[in-house]
Structure formats: C-alpha cells, structure tokens
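Minutes, project check-in
Item: structure for the 512-residue chain
Input as provided by the requester:
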Amino acid sequence: MSRAAPPPTTLLVARGIRTLDPSGGAARRALLLVADRIAWVGPSARAAPPHDRTVDVTGGWICPSFVDAHVHGTATGLSLTGLDLAGATSLAACLDRLRRHKSDAGADVVVGFSWDDHAWPEGRAPTAADIAEAVPHRTVLLTRVDGHSCVVDPGTLRRLPLAGLPGVERDERGEPTGLLREQASEAARRRVLARLPRAQLDAARLATCGRAAALGVGSLHEMGHPGLSGLDDARAWAVGQWPVEVHTWWAQIDPARWEGLRPGGDLFLDGSIGSHTAAVFDGYADGGGAGVLFHDDEAVAAFFTQASRRGVGAGVHAIGDRAVDQAVRALEAAAHRVGRTTVRACRHRVEHVEMVSPDLVARLADLGVVASVQPAFDAAWGGDDGLYARRFGPGAAGRINPLAWFAAAGVPMAFGSDAPVTALDPWGAVWAAEHHRGGYGLGREQALAAHTLGGRYAAGQDEVGALRAGARADFAVWSDDPLAVEDPRELRCLATVVAGRVAHGDLRLGGP
C-alpha cells in the first residue's frame, strides 16, 4: 500500500514579520508553512529548514490576521450591498438616500442601516410619514446606527402588534410615529427581514466575508440575536462554508435554546446610549431617564452558572454602568456556586462594557472576563461635543470606553466593530484605540494585539494567534510595517491567509 505524499512545504520571505509572540527573539523575515500550520519562523531564507518552494513577499510585512470580535454579519452585508445610511448629516440627506436607492434598486422591500440623528439639524429621527413621502407604498425598515431603534413605513406600522409593547414612540395624539425602540424595534425587524429572499441574504453574508478578508480580517464573531437576525440566520452562519472563519454566538438566556451555538454573546442586559436605553446609575443629562435592565439578577446569574458548569464561555451585552454591575454580580454569584477557578477558565465575555468604574474593572479582572470592546465608538461619539457628552456631560464622556483601565488591570480585550454599527475597519479601530478622546488609549502594539490575539483568546483558540512554530497559519500581509508606519489606516492588505488558505490576494501557497 502506497503512502500519501507529505504535504508541500512553502517558505514565505517577507520584508519583516511582526509575530506578536511575547517570547520575542531576533527580527523575523521568513516563515515556513506545512499545510495549515507554521513549522518555523526565523531571520532569513538562508536559515530556513529544507522546503519545496519559496514565495517572495519581500515588499510586505506579515502579522497575525485581525479578528473582528463582534459583528452582525448579515446586516453588515445588507448595508454593503444595499442602503447604507451611515454618514448622512441630516434627516433630509437620509431621506434622499432612501429615495435614490429605491429608484435604483426597484425592490418592494427596502432595508437600510446606520442612520444617526444625534447631530441632525432637524433635531428629530425619521417617521413613518417621512418614509411614505419619500417612497410611497413600499415596505421599509431603517435601523438606527446603534441597532436598538428603527423606523418603518405606515403599512408595516399598522400590521405590527404594538398593543402593550414597550418602545413605541407616540405623537401628541397618542398615535405611533413609526419610531420603535428595543422590543418594538425587534418585532419590526423580524417581520420585515423575513420577507427578504434567501439569495439576497446569502449574497449579503458573502459580501461581509469578502470585505473582511480584503481588510486583513481572518475571523468574525457573529452575534446572533432573536430580535436582530433570528435563529435561521445564526444557523446559516454556523454551518456555512465561508472565506473567513466564523464563530457564532446566540443571544438566548435559556440554555435549551442555545441550539449548539455559543451561548449569549449579544444577550442584551440593557440597550444603547443613543436610544437612551443603556442602564445607568446617574441618569441621562439630557433628560432621557436612566435606561432599562432587561433581565432580573437571578436570571443572569443562572445563565452564567449553567454556562460555567458546561465549561463554555458565555457573553452578555452591557453598556451602561448599571448593566455592567449586574453582569459582574451575576458572574460573582456563579463563582460562588461553581468556583472561581471554573468561572475564570471559561473566559466569559462582556460586550461593549462602555461605562465602568475602576472597581468594576478590577472585579472583571478577578473573574477572568474578556472585555469585548469597540474603539471606534469613542472615535464616533466621544469628545466634548459628541453623543456621549450630550448624554452625560463632557467630563463623564471622557471616561467612556476607558481602554487603558482594562489594560492596567489585566483584563483581556478583544476588539470588534459591532458592524454595521461602525464599519469593518480594523486599522481604524487600532487608530481609535491609540487616540482615545478622553486620554484612556493604548499603545500601537497593545491595540494590535487586542484586535488579533484578543479575539482568538475569547474564542478559546489557543492554537491560533501569535506567529510561532506549531500555530495555525492565520496571518495578513501588509504594505508596510504595522508598528512603524505613522498612520496604520494607510496600510494596504496584500493578502489574508486563513488556516493556510488564501482568502484574499494573489499569494500562491499551492503545491511545488
């Protein structure tokens, strides 16, 4: 019986390699691949072990590929392939995009994403009447940038079962305006998105993966949620064959509903700052109340306890300090029931974790929790004149998303975009982390590690990450040195490799 031929070995020779391996060592310029593994990393081609072929990428720099640790992939793809409202500077501009998109696309169902009204000169969000005037007799769903509010057309509004449902904005006559928040928004999304054809959804998912790979992102953490995308969508991500690696979380608090998916993830403990629904202790300075908690303490504690007993890392969405406090107390209750060591080993995660105190950060560190954070939020809404300052005042706004606190306390961080809330833009996130508008930023290498190695750690992928012998071959090739270039946002991705397979670029890693 003949033996199978050994896999070919390929030596990549680059201008430089940023391994992000804490063990360090001399400068690296060559990397040996065997199938989907790194067999050797060293200083030059001359020092390399025997190999079948050499691929010269001496114009590029190699470093671990990015992980976007929080995405809503189908919605991101629909915004890439359809109506993207990000950057519309007024209500009039938003409605003009809707009008022009409808005339271009001709579809009966129009979904749009990422309108942001906080600085619009009109001082208000869109209404159902606005939609009817712009595109009459069409089914329309326009989701706010935070994903916690939306506006729909009059026909959809009439068909929704809104009686007794919280989150319905009403006018002075008590009539729904078309603006819906939280549970009401989720009900609208479920109804409208169910009408989209499967081919459109599949194309959207592929568009997200393609954009990610072109940006050097090798892995996505898909955050499935019943009110955002639905179980069928989560299953599609979990079982599909994608150009990049996808890990799928499912936001149900009942373990019987996890359906083999990773538990929790974007499981909402509270809402969002933009929609006045993030749960905060001191209330909103602009008169928006104090937000809302969606689950009682015991339910959240039971959720983390059951996940810990199963030995799996679970996650929750917590933005306001009152929600983060609930998450921490629930994790502490789980640690009391099953043991602190068991809880720490699971690498539970808190998504967003925007508003914290030093005490909360220290308690997160003690529990081994991963902070799944989005630096682009500070770039978009921080500063003295941004959304955070409007909601809480400039002083408090500067302490939102305090990345330096997490780093100082030893809390592992995994960077993500929350796309389509902010764009898939990993170098933009690294830049935002370096230039935190309140002064709580990170160094370049810290930020790069959080956006590459941090997501691997959160997903339990100890065999993927830093570029070292024995690790899986996941990396990106860049046009310059990621740690030396002045503005990393100017870097071009020359190639992205996922598990030894080229997902983007013309890098040839085939046989000899």
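Outcome recorded: The first strand starts at residue 9 and ends at 17.
No further action items on this chain.
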